[in-house]
Amino acid sequence: MRIGVYLCQAGTGDVDTVGLHSIAGYAANLPGVEVVRELGVLPKIVPDELAAEIRAERLDRLVIAADTPGFFKPAFTRAMALAGGDPKEVWLASFNAFGASNGISTARAKSVLACATLGVPFALAAVPDSTAVHPGTVIVGGGISGIQAALEIADAGKQVFLVERTGTIGGHMAMFDKTFPTLDCAACILTPKMVSVGQHEMIDLMTYSEVAEISGSPGDYFVKVRKKARRVDVDACVACNICADVCPQRVSSEFDNGIAERKAAYIPFPQAVPNAYLIDAESCTYVQSDGAKCGVCAKKCPKECIDLDQADEIVELEVGNIILATGYDVYDATKIERYSYGVLPNVLTALEFERLTNASGPTGGKIITRTKRVSKKRGEEWVFDVEAGEPPKSVAIIHCVGSRDTNHNAYCSRVCCMYSLKFAHLVTEKLPDARCYEFYIDMRAFGKGYEEFANRIKAEGTFVIRGRTAKVFAQDEQMMIRGEDIISDRMVDIPVDMVLLSVGLIPAHGSADLATMLGLATDDDGWFSELDYNASPTETERGGVFVAGACQAPKDIPDTVAQASAVAAGVLKSIATGRGLNSRADLALSDIERRATSLVRI
Amino acid sequence: MAIRANPKLIEELEIYGAQDVSKCYHCGNCSATCPFSKDPYILPRRSMRSLQMGLERKLESDLEPWLCYYCGECSEECPRGAEPGETMMSLRRWLTSRYDFTGISRLFYRSWRIELAAILFVAMLTGLGFFLFGMSQGNIHHYDGAKAFLPGEKIHFFDWGLAVVLLVLLATNCARMWWFTIGRDKNTRVPITAYIKSAYLLPLHFITQMRYAKCERKRPWVVHLILMLSYVTMLVLIMFFVKRMAAGPAIDWRVHAFGLAATVGLLGTTIFAVRGRIKKTENHYKHSHETDWMFLILLIVVAGTGILQFILHRSGLDLAANITYVVHLMSVVPMLGLEVPFSKWSHLAYRPLAMYFAEIKAEAARAEARASQGVRAPQAA
After folding, report:
1. Which residues, 6+ apart, have CB-to-CB distance to B162 below 8 Å?
2. Separation of alpha carbons A371 and A386, rounded Å
3. Helix B318-334 to helix B112-137 angle, to the nearest 10 degrees?
4. CA distance A552 to A325
5. pTM of the model
6. By CA distance, what is A435's nearest residue in B?
7. Distance from CA of A400 to the nearest CA of B (A)
8. Upstream peptide bond of B7 is cis (omega within 30 degrees of 0)
9. Which residue of B30, B31, B79 is in closest CB contact with A406?
């Protein structure tokens, strides 16, 4: 077998992170390799010239080694056919697909190339050894994906530790009013699952806790969890609300995304699991004054379950598998000044609107605009006032805020088109007299029933305008939106009372720390890298560490739930057999070469 | 009429400085950002679209590129990095070459070597001509008086001759611009009255460049206005008051004042532009075509030698003043003779004309819409 190796780069960004020249030297010494060419960045490949070389060197196999070699494959296949060779003998050594271009290693790139020259799929050759697995599992993140994975594993009778950063599980889904495209009530789907988690004997629920340290090796991890001081005894609390009633401190509510306030003693929402209050140390007068002031809640609590002097506690867990389900945050809309978010009172982000329109939200689901309130104590502020607030006469929804934009995030956040359409439906349903405008670039309605949903919204009378608008501004007290209606070929200046920004998704804060803790690769945007996007979308380079839901990449609820169940299957497989995989990163180049060679002999 | 598409149009425009046109995914961000985007002239996305589709003839008849002042907001905000601002700039270059019937402009924009060779050739020819002319009747050691090397009146006569040639060339280009944008458009019928009614726009835009002031950042407008006014002042001084300038030691103080102000304006703004293009301080300085540099260098040489010969003459160094004067003419003639009709400087005519044409075209379209009652424009969404 006479082999030709062609090294090139399809990406023009951070070129040559793998060290192509040293890989070329390595390739020249591989058995059967006759020709090694370094073609550089985005080479223009002329099939005729290449075919001439193939004939002259009598090559039987071509290997394209690049970050994304598939980019060049058509030219090589054509050349092979022109030279009279077998077009099937064009092999790809894809550095991107197997994690070599994330700055991991030149060694990884070499092993990918070695497998390609031997004609062996990398994923077959680079199988780590197995290792014994401890039956416990820790899940980081208590959103819908963490809940789903926890229930699947616990229902199979295995121990799960569910670690959640906030005071309740439920994550973002708990904030939503409806789910797309079925317009089901989100809480009706989620809360039964949350209650099951709370009551499950195999699930050790650790809310208001964070992962502090992870050590150990695949199959036998030691996880230190910091249980932040909740200052309320979860088992004793009956959620009577007296502590919140007497608490004098008001701060903006995280669960309501800042559109309403909560007390320092609070429960995120009435259906929280565990259904217990907590004391927020940062806003509590007692804690901030080191016990000198206040302390009213502890005195008034009928169950005497408040301990304001409670300290953080570290719990150590020994587990076999770790599931990362840390989810997402939304893009900070203040970074895009032209949308006037944070400047004009009635420009809302998607999550803020979710709370506004939610029947259990601060306005009881009434869609109203903010009104100005002046008080001596707090000055001038814009608030949602159920009595004084007027319903908006027109609402504009702007897609792709912070997404598909090289100045912000280049990727598509996947869920925004659909939730924007859902908003349009909620607006037209609740306010039949209001005009609703959607400004979009491309309507990405890609899932089951999604396209039909989009058509339905258009039929409901929403003005769906192609053209991402560029400006939200105030003109004589009236909010205006300016954009180009591309299909009708004209400029539009529309007076609106409310603007909803369909903000994109970004990795949750703290996920970078988690990746460092685990030595896990993330992609350029900060999402956790999976082992193989097509074949192993739930596993990672690190053995015994799985990813579920939006922490891997933006995902909607159906996909998240599906992936969480898939992760549970992987975890249960390793527990059932007692064996799990080691980290692929620990495999030496020589191991992979040896395995690949042995596979060729078969 | 059949619509022809030129699939290589983007490649052609790239020679004129366009970049990344094919990256555009038509979100409309740029049009909404642009302060000049107003029906019926939506820019710059429409031009990006025409380019991607290769609609050469439509682009030829578009006025949009001339309505853009390159504040660069569109390029800054573009989510794809498609550089719409630079595309509009390159379209202006391309249009300049289209309006010019001689084909010289096209050659210049496509090859800086040809442009440089032409400039040098004209410069040498001018230098030789004036030198021989000076030798034939004067003395190189005398700047003025009877034996003057280059007598003022003769040069003045030459100035006017050159001006007439340039105006004729420019006028033919402007006529072609009219033909492309209005004349051959069978759908738009502009009544003579409309031409007369809006004629005031021409001098207005020429002198004030008030549209430029609509950009969010005002500095480029101020710089450009100073540069333009300095040039006009200089031109007026040379064309109409040349005698007073060359009137020996007793120069009218008013000529002095204007001359000084124009000199400072010229040098200041040119140096600002050169520095800006090197350091890329402004959006419209980020990408420089070879012709931009050629223009700036000529500008500096013209202004510098003009002032130097004045100073030398005032200092009594007649020989040096005469030589500098010849060099000055060697740079003025190619600059006026080549840049005004064939290159960057032609925008002095196209810009105000475009505003004028745009107004009367829009007015004609409005009149037509009024006339065709019954067919209502779709309601604003």
Report:
1. B333, B336, B337
2. 10
3. 140
4. 8
5. 0.88
6. B381
7. 10
8. no
9. B79
